[in-house]
Amino acid sequence: MAGQLLRPDQVAEWLGMSTSWVYGNKHRIGFVQIGSAVRFERSAVERYAESCKRGPQLEERDKWESQSDTGKRGTGGWSRKRTTVTDINERLRGIEKGSDRRGNTQRSARQS
Fold first, then answer.
1. Number of structural domains in the chain
2. What is the value of pTM for the model shown?
């Protein structure tokens, strides 16, 4: 076997989770079953922990910037754009205008 086998309680302590969480997520982590005993390879736990990382890493900062690029990138006109406060305010104004129109329509229907 290519690594040290860890018990679920050791994995739980290492990841800062409960033992029941480890048992519930053993298929995500990857495990070895010997009879009724469940064990985890250290390398599998390390890979799982690495895959759970979120946020830009120093070497990946450029990738994250390019994902929020507002330019078109051969996507048929679809591009990922960072939502700004101005965008949100414009959408809210559009909702307010839409609700005013509905309100006016209902009032005019009641008056006639």
1. 1
2. 0.47
